[in-house]
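input
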Amino acid sequence: MEQTYSVASNPVYYEEQSLHVLFAGESQTPPLHQVGPKIYDYFLLHCIETGAGAFRTEQRTYELGPGDCFLIQPGQLVSYVSDLAQPWKYRWAAFSGTDAGRLVREAGFSPEQPVAACGDRSVIPEALAGIMKTFYAGRESGHLTSLGLLYLTLGEASEMLKDHSRLPGKDSQVKRTVKQMIHYMSSQYAHPISIEQMCKGLGYNRAYLSRIFKEDTGLSPVTYLLKLRIDKSRQLLRERPELSVEQVAASVGLTDALYFSRQFKRFCGQSPTAYRAVTARQQDH
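output
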């Protein structure tokens, strides 16, 4: 098997960047090819395409194969060596920045959990190859492209690194699903979404989602979404006096201003116009 090695660096570098991909590369290693023991001053993520090898930290050794990823953290003493019979081919990307540590923690990586088994259908090798190709092109826009591909990479890795230990089994899944629903509504309330669309997007039956959501929050998804929209509209009525009631309604995803006014009075006990007048007088005093 012929040994290969290539690497491409980001043509743009910014001081004090919140997140920055430094370089990306690929290599078909020879048998028993070893790197380290050594430390790095940046994050370095590897993804194995073919073959096998071992990744060693100060705590333990991981035997890895195709689809496995391992993340080296700054200041961590590590070494890694390819297999004798089936030396690995891998891709990698190095990144740094003030937000890098938070990002890898959100993905689920830690010094105690540096490995993610993403499988042979993973898009990570393609994403890392995309970073390398982008850097070879030498365009300044490659900096932004590389960040998108890095987020894609860590996003997929996080699917394999989710911590299910806080809640056992079914309860854990229910809590995560309810959180997904709340996040969906909180980010999409300004659009004319429906609960049916949300259920379809999350891949669950509406009756099931409605039941677990009400058990967890005390409100049905329909009521929760409507209350969220009314709460947002109250803020707009207070802070944006130049907006009409129709514009406020549209801004919270309710295109029927009459329906909005009825629901606003149902939750707040007064019309949007009256609410705005009262809050304006209070602010004047």
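quick obs: Confidence is low (pLDDT under 50) at residues 163-169.
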